[in-house]
Each structure stands twice: as C-alpha cells, then as structure tokens.
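Budget justification aside, the reviewers requested a transparent look at the raw inputs and outputs of the sequence design task funded under Objective 1. We therefore reproduce one unedited record. The lines immediately below are the structure tokens for a 327-residue chain.
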C-alpha cells in the first residue's frame, strides 16, 4: 500500500537525528546514579562508564536508555543469578517496579528522569533504610541529597525560550505566506478542540490558532496531512528542531492518533484536500473526539487519554467551523 508522504524541507533539520543516536543499556539502579550525578553528587558503587554516559545524556536528553537487571522480564533465567549481588539485584527490581517497567524496557533519558521525579521522589525503602546493616547499607546522605537535587533539575529542552520565540515568528510567517498547509491529522482535531474551547487569538506555545485564520480566510486552501513536518509544532517546548520529533511522553500516543485519524477519514499520509472538503470528512466520520483520543483506563503514561476527550470542546469547535467554512 502506497503511503509515502512528501517531506517538506526545513533548514537545519536532521530527520534521522533521534534514530542515529546509539542508545545505551544500563542496570536499572544506575538510573538513580545518573540522577545523582545530575545533582552534582557521586553515587555509591558507581560503574566506571556512568559519568561518560551522563555526559551523553546531558548532550542528548532524548537518547534511549534500556534498563536491565540480572533477571529477564520473566524473572529468569537463573535461580541464583550470576551477575550482581543481592543488594544490587533488589535495587534494580525496586526501580523497575516503581517506574512500571520490566527488564529490557527502553525509554528516553528525559522520560526516565521525569518518571523518576514522580514515582521515586524518595529513596526510603529502596536504598535508604531505617536500620541499615553492613550487608544492607543505606546510600550516604550526601548522595541522597544529590539525587534529590537531580530530580528537581530537569534535563534541558531541545530549544530555549528564545529559540522557541524565533521559531514562532518563522513558522507563523510560513503559515501566513504558504499556498497550502501541512498539518498532522490529529492536529486538525487539536485545532478544532482549541477553537471550541473559546480561543480568540494566537498563543506562544504552538500554532493552533493560525491555521484557523487561514481556513476562515480561504475555505478552499489545500491541506496536506502529514505524519511529520507539521506547521503547528515548531514553537512547542516539546518540539525538537533537530529531528522534527515530539519529545514529550505523548509522542508515541500522538503517532497512533495520526494513524487512527487517517483510517477513520479513509486517507493516507500526503493526501491533500481543500480545507472545506477535509473538514466535511471530520464532521461525517469523526463527530466525537473520543474515537481517537480516549484510551480508557488511565495507567500507563505513554497511553493516557487526552484531557480534551472529556471537555466537549472538539464537538463545539467542529460545529463552529462547519458553519464558518460553509461545510
């Protein structure tokens, strides 16, 4: 099935940037060590390669880290694992359990730091004990303090506020001057939800407002549906200009939302329709946002439902745009 969408050229874009990052494997417990290093400390029993890995994480916060243990995801294969000692094996499993992960799971360093800040905001019972012993010691107090400092200091975003402001100016100018719009399929729904929520003007964080203006000015402006290189994204704090990818935890979910939207519309990446005709498809085929954005039970961070699933704003926005564009 042919679905190769045409790519738009962005100056300085490195489309394979994230894919080309090498990725690293480390024991789950060493995530605590990375965070301790981030807080200016030195974790106990630190592997020799950990400081070098930390420098890689600092330079490329969205590199994938695979967390491992002496056990595999089944708890095997050895009755008495031949790697690591009992203290280390226990620490690995506590870190994995708190992060809702299994041995061999991979996440970006940014997401692991974010998740640790939420799920492991204290080392009590993990490697700090009320009654430590020689065999089961607590982490030193200075390492614990450094870990807590590391949690409070997020990894750097892919672009600074100043760079985001420049991206806003440049991308808005492109939207205003372009003969057509290039938008991710689910972002049409975000635009509609934004409009239905009472939006009356642009915001700094993204370009949800500007396409509305172009569509209202010219209901037949061509819109190309893309899985990347979307005109909405450049000012967003979660947008990585090096790769064109979203680095927020919603990135994977949004990929599915794009493909679910395309299936419901019976379209493929790269398909181009006049705004009025495209909106008519949304009206007919996706009248309610939950068909794309509601993932049911809220447990796994990567698959949380969008808050807009329950607001009713998409449905309101769809009704407004339907009238204003003459659908």
């Amino acid at each position: 099935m042919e679905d190769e969408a045409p790519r738009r050229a962005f100056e300085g874009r490195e489309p394979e940037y994230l894919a080309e990052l090498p990725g690293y494997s480390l024991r789950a417990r060493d995530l605590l060590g990375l965070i301790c290093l981030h807080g200016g400390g030195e974790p106990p029993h630190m592997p020799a390669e950990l400081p070098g890995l930390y420098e890689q994480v600092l330079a490329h916060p969205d590199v994938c880290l695979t967390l491992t243990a002496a056990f595999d995801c089944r708890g095997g294969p050895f009755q008495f694992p031949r790697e690591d000692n009992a203290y280390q094996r226990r620490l690995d499993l506590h870190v994995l359990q708190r992060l809702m992960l299994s041995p061999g799971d991979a996440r970006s360093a940014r997401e692991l730091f974010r998740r640790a800040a939420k799920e492991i905001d204290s080392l009590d019972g993990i490697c700090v004990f009320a009654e430590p012993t020689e065999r089961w010691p607590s982490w030193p107090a200075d390492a614990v303090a450094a870990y807590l400092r590391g949690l409070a200091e997020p990894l750097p975003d892919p672009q600074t506020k100043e760079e985001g402001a420049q991206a806003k100016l440049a991308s808005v100018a492109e939207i205003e001057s372009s003969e057509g719009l290039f938008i991710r399929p689910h972002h049409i729904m975000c635009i509609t939800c934004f409009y239905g929520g009472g939006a009356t003007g642009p915001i700094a964080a993204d370009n949800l407002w500007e396409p509305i203006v172009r569509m209202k000015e010219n209901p037949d402006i061509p819109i190309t549906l893309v899985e990347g290189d979307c005109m909405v994204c450049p000012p967003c704090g979660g947008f990585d200009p090096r790769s064109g990818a979203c680095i927020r935890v919603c990135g994977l979910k949004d990929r599915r939302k794009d493909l679910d939207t395309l299936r419901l519309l019976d379209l493929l990446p790269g398909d181009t329709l006049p705004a009025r005709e495209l909106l008519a498809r949304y009206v007919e085929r996706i009248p309610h946002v939950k068909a794309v954005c509601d993932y049911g039970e809220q447990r796994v961070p990567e698959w949380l439902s969008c808050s807009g699933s329950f607001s009713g704003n998409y449905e309101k926005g769809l009704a407004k745009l339907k009238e204003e564009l003459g659908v």
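Strands lie at 24-27, 64-68, 106-108, 181-183, 222-225, 239-240, 245-246, 272-274. Residues 9-14 have pLDDT under 50 and may be disordered. Computational costs for records of this kind are itemized in the attached budget.
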